[in-house]
Amino acid sequence: MERQLVLLDAAEQTLAAAAEEDRDEARGRLEQRLVLQLAAYLDRYTDMGEELEALLPARQDGPPPSASPTLAA
Q1: For residues 28 and 52, what is the distance between their CA atoms, to the nearest angstrom?
Q2: Do residues 26 and 18 make contact, with C-beta atoms less than 8 angstroms apart?
Q3: Residue 71, C-beta contacts closer than 8 angstroms, at least 6 positions apart
Q4: Among 27, 61, 65, 70, which is most exposed with the fewest C-beta within 10 angstroms?
Q5: Are 71 and 38 in contact (CB under 8 A)?
Q6: Cβ-Cβ contacts under 8 Å for 27 (sequence gap 6 or more)
């Protein structure tokens, strides 16, 4: 768990340090990396899906934005 917190802190610093005009691109790269890490975690710990879902914000109606990666459970 501590390693994940370090990675999140590093991601936050990367985003904060990015030039304003590059911030959207940096955010997109970070989101992709986090989604891949989350998918790998859920693949390894399949029983954690429900607990993780409880931590996430409720889904809103409508399709997700096309730029955001999604996970299928």
Answers
A1: 22
A2: yes
A3: 35, 38, 39, 42
A4: 61
A5: yes
A6: 15
What's the whole-number mean pLDDT along residues 9-32? Answer: 87
Rounded CA-CA distance 17/31 in Å is 16
pTM above 0.70, yes or no: no
Residue 51: predicted pLDDT:
84
Residue with tokens 């109606």: 61
Q: Quote the tokens at residue 39.
A: 């998918």
| Token reading at 7 | 């990675």
From the list 17, 36, 30, 11, the residue with the least C-alpha distance to 3 is: 11
pLDDT of residue 61: 65
Contact 15, 26 (CB under 8 A): yes
